[in-house]
Structures are given as structure tokens and as C-alpha cells.
Amino acid sequence: MPAEVDATFRTLRRAAFGYFALFVVVVAAVPGLTLALDWWSQGRLVGGMSPSFVMAAFGLYVFFFVLAVAAATLANAVEDRMLGGPERDHPEQRGDAP
Predict the structure, then answer these.
(1) If you ran DSSP here, which 8-state letter would residue 67 be given?
(2) In a domain, 69, yes or no
């Protein structure tokens, strides 16, 4: 059992680093695009808002929510697959009890 827990921890740590890297890239892209592309900060969308403002005001929050749901879903799936679900801890619930 300790080996399974250790393997699960290492797998979840790798996934967390991957999601963190994606987070950093997207968050750094907003000011990076402002420096690299004139239309990103000078263009106008609905209501006179620039694409940069729309991304900072609304888009990042949507991205954060989607990233959090994806990370939580992956973590739950990894734990369930590698460690088993609640029925593994309580065999009497499955009908295996004597």
C-alpha cells in the first residue's frame, strides 16, 4: 500500500507541475501580447474595450475556472484508478463480507 500511495503522489505532482506551467504561460501571455502586438491593447471590441482588457477582466477568470475543474477531475480520476474507490476500503459494502 505505501508504494501505491507514493506512485499516486508522484503522478499527481507531475500533473500539478504541468497545470502550473500552463497557468504561468497563459498569465504571462497577457502582458507579453501587450508588448508584442499593438492591436492587442489598441484594438477595440464591443463597448470600446481592448482585447487585452477583455482577456484580463473576463477571459482569465474563465481560464482559471476551466483549469481548476480540469485539475480536480484529473486528480480524482488518478486517485480512483491508482488507489481504488471507497468500495476497496469496505468490502462488506460490495457483498464480499463473510
Answers:
(1) H
(2) yes
- In angstroms, the CA 16 to CA 34 distance is 28
Angle at 18 between CA 60 and CA 16, to 5 degrees: 90
Number of neighbours of residue 52 by Cβ within 10 angstroms: 19
pLDDT tens, position by position, 19-62: 999 999 999 999 999 999 999 989 999 889 999 999 999 999 99
Residue 87 belongs to a domain: no
* pTM of the entire predicted model: 0.74
Handedness of CA 94, 83, 18, 24 (dihedral sign): positive
Residue 89, C-alpha cell as written in the block: 476500503
